[in-house]
Amino acid sequence: MGDILSVPFGQRQLSAIAVRHSSTHQPKLRSVKLKDVFQVVSHGYFSKDYWKLLEQVAAHYQTSLIQVIRTALPPGLLAKSKRKIRLKRPEQKLDPTVLGPAARQLLTHLQQSPAGEYTWQYLQRQHRQSRTGLQELQQQGWVESYLAPPQPPQPKQRQAVLLTGQSIAVEHLSPRQQEILLTLQRQGGDLWLSDALQRLRTTSKTLRTLASKGYLTIEPRQVLRVGSHSQAMRDQPKVLTADQQSALTALNQLAEATQVLLHGVTGSGKTEVYLQAIAPRLAAGQSVLVLVPEIGLTPQLTDRFRSRFGEQVCVYHSALSEGERYDTWRHLLSAHAQVVIGTRSAIFTPLANLGLIILDEEHDSSYKQDQPMPCYHARTVARWRSQLANCPLILGSATPSLETWVNTRNTLEGAQQCGTPTDSPCPTHYLSLPNRINTRPLPPVKLVDMRQELYAGNRSLFSRPLQTALEQLKASAEQGLLFIQRRGHSRFVSCRSCGHVMDCPNCDVSLAYHRPGTTAYLRCHYCGFTQGQPERCPSCGSPYLKNFGSGTQRIVDEIEKALPELRCLRFDSDTTRAKGAHRALLERFADGEADLLVGTQMLTKGIDLPNVTLVGVMAADGLLHLSDYWSAERAFQTLTQVAGRAGRGDRPGQVIVQTYTPEHFAVQAMQHHSYNTFIEQEQEQRQALHYPPYGWLILLRFSGLDARQVEQAAQDCAQQLQTSAIEGIQVLGPVPAPILRVANRYRWQVLLKGTLDSPRPNVSNLRQQVNSQVSVTVDVDPLNLS
Predict the structure, then answer these.
(1) CA distances from 418 to 49, 406, 421, 430, 478 (A)
(2) Under a CB-based contact definition with an 8 Å cutoff, are residues 86 and 146 in contact?
(3) What is residue 313's three-state secondary structure?
(4) Would you say 279 and 446 are in contact if contact means Cβ atoms under 8 Å apart?
(5) CA distance 648 to 644
(6) What's the pTM value of the predicted model, to 2 decimals?
């Protein structure tokens, strides 16, 4: 398994992957003339354990192996690789006169090549019997075949901006040009062009103008393509607290497949424990895989890892270009010890001699893929990979998922009853970091009941306590974060005369209002449809259109009106689309270019900004009332994580949460930083209703362009499942999806719900029984039920 093959397909020769060996063939192929594999191009391109992992993913998530392969491999890996034929240096002298005409002609071509090699595609065109000729040359020992990149790797060039050292002449420059040069000087006088455009808030034209005047130069520089650029300075391991040292000692004693829950409060120093646990693995020649939930986390984390381990650190995630992912993948095939930092797709990177896997923020839902199939969870795949590689798996979080918490507790209790923790097939350890570094206190949380604010006559987006805290921010030279769930300006636009709502023509959702500058537009956050903001209602012609709901953009606008002295930056998917934007925005904020960072979920994920003393949550209720069985858990985790961004430096922090339901148990538990209190109540509810981890779910999603066909397919499948259902399994539905139509595709769904004692049915064959115009997605262990 894992061999790269050359196979005949009609008149063509195609590349293929050997996925399994079989002594028999399928009955439907008996009448078909089977052809032999022409040649094995590369033996064992991937390890046997790697293919076992892919097969395990395909079986558990009920999808075909080829779909898993497409997900695991970087885009175009085989398409970019080319089969080449090169001359060998035989140990004994060979006689070319004994070769046939085709073999002699191919040999002549190869001997005339300056490199002694050609692509197989080229050689095929040189003689009609090239296949026979090649086989003869290989049998005689003249040539060998191998898989190679389409061209030798070329150094990647990247534009850099450098100050020339010429003194800034006030009389020859505008105030804005002077400001740009002075800011560049403060940054060390040397930035990548893409970073300079972000950090200096300027344009390429302006920089070229300054270059023409001799104040700076713009020149290309060679950079590695296997990771993000980092200017992080080399650093040394830090002195650990007693809790950190205890956790590290326990981790360094682990050498086999073991699952470790590292439960540390926000700011307790989990990353430093990771770094010091990784060092001995690298020294022993082992590689380490570090997974993070969001791409936005990778720049800051990569800088810290590179400052410790240098160029042994690689980055792998979907935001890299195809070329970068391809280069990184091939680089990882080497046996060198290295650290890979990536998002969920990095769980499939082909690291040799894997010594440790780390899932940071293991609770995060970003580790679960909803579509396309396979709908895998990186945490589950990481467990399997840990067992196959026989290496420890660290699950780190301040707010562990209920599944991880229950599994850890159950395994530990069972092991204690057996008398030893090694009696479990996969030993489990629980390590705790209950205190912050330097015994810094967790920030106090103030809940503001927005109903009382309304009764007091405050109709502003900001409660009085939050307004006061924001006003004090500038005077104290401190920074703050404002968290709101939605991006954009307003959630929807409605006519105040007739009530008409501006809807997306392709989806059953309203269009969100955006106003990045002076021009306003409406955008669908599902399909991307965009149109200009109309001056009048398209239904009744009224000019009275009003925006409802709030997003990051509106919060920034309101701050600029109420507190113009506060400098704001937005941190959401709208402002971080450009490559390198995550890093640039965080660096600008860390350098003090803004007092307030307004953002969405990105703010909750591991950002470490020591000068942040204030965290404000604009509307906690948007997290609490979602149509998912685990909405309370998600709300508690999100609120706790964003609150943990405050007070991580020398100054104490504070958190202000605005909500209309301060009595909700998740909000109450978050206010008191009480994970155990929340877990006890959440466990009770899940257990009573047999929701995970006290049961299992399989969601079938049906979609298509014809509404009737989709509905009928869902009904037929549900009826078949109900007929064959066994005890302990419920078939819920079919029902329309919460948003019936997205991108002009109608959606229905069926939910299978079972107890832990009931076996999970294999429903993958249902896809073959529905109308070919209807697609069916099988989501095993779904998190998103919409």
Answers:
(1) 31, 18, 8, 17, 53
(2) yes
(3) strand
(4) no
(5) 8
(6) 0.80
262 strand-pairing partners: 396, 431
Spatial distance between the Cα atoms of 621 and 601, rounded to a whole number of angstroms: 14
Question: With contact defined as beta carbons under 8 Å apart, do 29 and 57 qualify?
Answer: no
Residue with tokens 């400098």, as numbered in its chain: 567
For residues 638 and 615, what is the distance between their CA atoms, to the nearest angstrom? 13
Distance (Å, rounded) from C-alpha 277 to C-alpha 263? Answer: 16
The tens digit of pLDDT for each residue in 132-190 reads 888 888 888 888 887 765 554 455 677 888 888 777 776 778 888 888 888 888 877 88
Alpha carbon distance 274, 276 (integer Å):
6
Angstrom distance (rounded) from CA 287 to CA 281: 7
56 pairs with which residues across the strands?
none
- In the DSSP assignment, the letter for residue 308 is H
Q: At what angle do helices 175-186 and 204-212 cross, to 10 degrees?
A: 90
Q: So what's the pLDDT on residue 77?
A: 66
Q: Please give the biggest Cα pair distance in the chain.
A: 102
Integer CA distances (angstroms), 177 to 75, 172, 183, 184, 392, in order: 43, 10, 10, 11, 54
CB-based burial of residue 646 (10 Å sphere; 0-12 exposed, 13-18 middle, 19+ buried)?
buried
pLDDT at 588 over 70: yes
* Contact between 198 and 578 (Cβ < 8 Å): yes
Residues in the chain: 786
Q: Please, what is the angle between helix 242-252 and helix 270-283, to 10°? A: 30
Report pLDDT for 333: 74
In angstroms, the Cα distances linking 462 to 200, 550, 662 are: 31, 12, 16
Q: Average pLDDT of 407-434?
A: 68
DSSP characters for 376-434? -BHHHHHHHHHHHHT-EEEEEESS--HHHHHHHHHHHHHHHHHTSGGGSSS-EEEEEE-
What span, in angstroms and rounded, lies between the C-alpha atoms of 769 and 590?
Answer: 56
Q: Identify the sign of the CA torsion 513, 516, 517, 523.
A: negative
DSSP string, 191-255: EEHHHHHHHTT--HHHHHHHHHTTSEEEEEEEE-SSS----PPP--PPPPPHHHHHHHHHHHT--
Closest of 298, 302, 299, 320 to residue 311, by C-alpha: 302
Burial class (CB in 10 A: 0-12, 13-18, 19+), 218: middle
What is the C-alpha to C-alpha distance for residues 561 and 572, in angstroms, rounded to an integer? Answer: 21
How many Cβ atoms are within 10 Å of 786's Cβ, its own excluded?
14
Q: Which of 237-246, 340-349, 587-596, 746-755 has the lowest mean pLDDT?
A: 587-596
The whole-number pLDDT of residue 593 equals 87
Q: Which two tokens stand for residue 610?
A: 């020591």
The model's pLDDT over 690-707, given as tens digits with 9 standing for 90+, comes to: 899 999 999 999 999 999
What is the structure's pLDDT at 445?
95
What pLDDT digit, counting tens, does each position of 336-355 carry?
Answer: 888 999 999 999 988 888 99
In the chain, what is the straight-line distance between the N-terminal and C-terminal CA atoms, in Å? 38
Rounded CA separation 240/437 (Å): 9
Which residue type is seen at 377?
A: H
pLDDT at 20 over 80: no
Q: Could you give the 3-state DSSP secondary structure of residue 170?
A: helix
Please state the separation of Cα 548 from the chain's center in Å.
31
Structural domains of the chain, ranges and CATH numbers in brackets? 82-148 (1.10.10), 156-223 (1.10.10), 242-287+325-438 (3.40.50.300), 440-490+549-613+636-659 (3.40.50.300), 695-780 (3.30.70.600)
Predicted confidence at residue 151, as pLDDT, reads 52
Q: Could you tell me the strand order of the sheet in which 775-780 lies?
A: 729-742, 745-755, 695-704, 775-780
d(CA 319, CA 196): 20
